[in-house]
Amino acid sequence: MAGTAIVLSGGGNRGPLQVGALDVLFRHGIRPDFVVGTSAGAINAAYIAAHGPEADMDELAALWHRARRDIVYPGNALTIAWRLLIGADSFFPGYGIRHLIQQHLPPGVRTFGDLRLPCYVTAVDLRTSRLYLFGEDPEAPLVDAIVASASVPGIHPPVEYHGLQLVDGGVVAAVPAGIAMEKGATTLYVINVGYGGEPRKPVHGVINVLKRVLDTFIVQSLLDDLHVAAADPAVQLHHIHIPAFQDLPFTDFDHIDEMIRAGREAAEAYLAHPHPFAVEEVVETRAEQVPGARVWPIPRPRRRILYREE
Fold first, then answer.
1. What is the pLDDT, as a whole number, of residue 232?
2. pLDDT 10s digits, 228-256
3. N or C, which end of the chain has less CB nearby within 10 Å?
4. Helix 95-104 to helix 40-51 angle, to the nearest 10 degrees?
């Protein structure tokens, strides 16, 4: 479908950054024809799609205020140890986040067919190692889709769905801009609260090195999508990157209002001087302090989406 798409990245408990940015987009008269979301972005995307053009960002902010550590990550060190001992699939159970998502859906909105705007939500199937796209089947349950998209492997359990084992879509594509382009969007507003491909300081420690390696794989999907958008004159892609609160512990839900303000500020700053993406921003990033060196995105094939045929 041609038109305008809003694309919302993964970001965990930093999802409120998107709430502030969305509020600014709507106040500037930017209305999507459809939305695409991953992980925390799937929660925000489903809210927009369920409420349509009248989506109230104050209500969405209230949802994030209800997201407390004891709800999203119930338990303590002893319960985590017990879950490891019994061979559970995750450190934390998934019932808390499921209940939270159920609460925020309007009455009568239970499937993708009930939404007022088309919405696409990504997950990853651990059985086939492929991206799974919700939104094609109008009968697909919204709660299962959102919970699957937001279930970080090891943190929350996979969602069993029609024989699939689904986890966080951000594992493959933290910023699903390519989905929007494949669905025909010609104008994209990408609100990215994750890693944006910018050079960072060296990292140390085994856990931090492994996390950086995962970030490296994930960011390639973003670089690939941006490169494709830049090469297509019919596509106008606005990349609003919000790196604020990058060091926030994933269990910290005490800075909701500050994040909403930071999201507003970032979106206002971008819209004051909008600059649709240019290919040079991807392929000519220079290595820091290495004269004459260039960093090129790792070549990768276009993603093949796994569609479930009912």
1. 75
2. 666 677 889 999 999 899 888 888 999 99
3. C
4. 20
Classified as helix, coil or strand, 283 is helix
**Token pair for 273:** 């001087």
Are the C-beta atoms of residues 52 and 116 closer than 8 Å to each other?
A: yes
How far is residue 208 from each of residues 67, 170, 204, 249, measured CA to CA in Å?
A: 26, 18, 6, 14
- Segment 154-182 shows an average pLDDT of 86
Q: E strands within the chain?
A: 3-8, 34-38, 119-125, 130-134, 159-161, 164-168, 185-192, 236-241, 285-286, 294-295
Residue linked to tokens 């934390």: 92
The answer for residues whose C-beta is within 8 angstroms of residue 53's C-beta and 6 or more apart is 31
State the Cα–Cα distance between residues 278 and 230, nearest whole angstrom. 5
List Cβ neighbours of 95 (8 Å cut-off, separation of 6 or more).
Answer: 74
Q: What are the distances in angstroms from CA 156 to CA 126, 133, 148?
A: 14, 20, 9
Provide the token pair at 271: 């819209």
Residue type, 151: S
User: How many residues are present in the chain?
Assistant: 310
Residue 162, both tokens: 């029609």
SS3 168: strand
The rounded Cα 188 to chain-centroid distance in angstroms is: 15
Average pLDDT on 280-287 reads 42
Q: Is 43 helix (H, G, I), strand (E, B) or coil?
A: helix
Q: What is the pLDDT of residues 30-66, one digit of tens each?
A: 999 999 999 999 999 999 999 987 888 999 999 999 9
